[in-house]
Amino acid sequence: MSDAAGLASVLATLGPEDGTLPWPRYRLDRESWRGLIARLATVDWSLVALWGEEKTVQLALRDEVAGTQALARLDCPEGSYPSLAAVRPGAIRLERAIRDLHGLDAEGAADTRPWLDHGRWGAISRLIAAAPYPFLPVEGEGVHQIPVGPVHAGIIEPGHFRFHANGETVVRLEERLGYVHKGTERLMQGKTALEAARLAGRLSGDATVAYAIAFARAVEAALGVEPPPRAVYLRALMAELERIANHFGDFGAICNDAAFGFIQAHATVAREGVLRAAETCFGHRLMMDRVVPGGVAVDLAEAAGPRVALLMTELADSLAYLMRIYDNKPSLQDRTVSTGVALSELVHRFAAGGFVGRASGRAVDARKSPGYPPYDDLDFDIPTRSEGDVHARLMIRIEELKQSFRLVEQLLERMPQGEIRRELPSAVGGGGSGEGIAEVESFRGDVFVYVKLDGEGRVIRCHPRDPSWFQWPLLEACVENNIVADFPLCNKSFNCSYSGHDL
Amino acid sequence: MWRLIAKTLVKGPFTIAAPPPSGDGLAELASRVDSAARARLGRSLVIREVDAGSCNGCELEIHALNNPVYDLERFGIRFAASPRHADVLMVTGPVTKNMAEALKRTYDATPNPKWVVAIGDCAFDGGLFQGGYAVVGGVKEVVPVDLHIRGCPPTPTQMLTGLLALLETVERPQP
Lengths: 503, 175
Fold this sequence. Notes:
The complex is a heterodimer. By secondary structure, chain A is an alpha+beta fold.
């Protein structure tokens, strides 16, 4: 469908180019914004991010065919903008969040209920008081509600799930999130890039390295700083260790939710091994605050390399052992195969990334496309499957683990020597080009960060977008017609972030 | 499965060699936690974990307490699904305003005697999120806290140390 005119050239016909970002950006007026929405109904462009600022909305799009990205910006002094929800359903919750946080209304919005705002923030809240939240209705004989959360029955982040069930069968699941909203975007404002990087690393604690890299790359793009080659390799090493630790953790947890604790016991030992290696190498088990704008904060000790390489061999053995057990347990696969199918059509419509997307045939990985160093120098594959069930999401993780073992080996072999950090310029050079964007693959999917810095390197505006925004809605869809007891399995196989989403 | 059972019988349970006592002190710590827990609670301490707005970093490390390396259950300390089964509330996060009521209600639902352990820098005073419009800033602002375990996030060893301190210093209130 993508005509010769790509994303950027179409946007160019709609509005003039605006600013000098790493991605081209076009300033649209309301008429051309509407034109863009009409265009989106027919083209294969994914919604990457949509966020608000003072009387402005910005939209990031990606041309799936050409693999290019562009931004569109619309000033809305009257406080509203035409809604994208009809053509990109992934925008629904983003539009609700924009209204909660910036007071900008989406005209023709599909859902006008608040999202992050529960009426408890005081002066900044748009709501007068915490009113009852209207859940979507379900009609029919014998349908009953099961409210779950925000405090869940495990060691897990808080959120509310409202099940409508007919007997054991889920008729509808509705999520209500926002419980973990900490106002991180606002807290970043006025902080230096280095201070804000610590907050970026705590948007979602399990993806702290990925977020720190995304934030650092966005700041570096804004300031025109290139991190040293060794730092780039060290970042990738940390990111892959983070991916390995999380995938092992998820593997165990999914099996545990199918009442098979044996694999979890082994998987958590593997995970613990990775965290201990991370502490030895970088001084922190989760590697928080190790990636900073300009490079990395700690170097890898000479002796640590061989230890990590050995760990990869051990983990590969452990994984092979666990996979033999998984493959030989029909009772376990009975729970995972054909459970919680995320339809390929929906995955594409929502542009869901990570294992959720790849298990349903959407082969998108930010490490390959748009790609960023050092991954363009490394040899690895992006595994995909088409079933879209719990089993497929698990198998994607297993395949990704194998790829990550390969990547760590290559990173250690090719790790260049040299410095690990460059100083950030204290003031931005002329041209006002203090805006940057970065897209980085976390273990969960693509993390997007937009940052705008003032002349002193302080954050004016930062918008991080978690992959979960486009995965949570698919969880609602995939649970339908499954039994209530399979929800934990579906949920764990998605493993969406609450903190990253609620930001 | 038979092979596995046979192997387990011959080789014993799957464990990782404990670190030397002088290392991170885990074994030493473990025996102290064990005896303190036994003396005070007769091998029964049940924890209900509540995330009141953490970034999930603390949760990951709390999960690690359950892995076979730290194996919290060997001390008779375990996590429960309901606050009504719990002696201890383990709370993380800077307590978001959206979670404050849920935290208070969970506290109220926990039977006496009960203790609250605040895990991590955020739960101490809001940490990096202190002063934000959407956070209360520290668990003690919402429910009384018996013990703070600092760290971002605290390591499983630090949490074990903290639980030991709780067991050793807090007298069980008379019912």
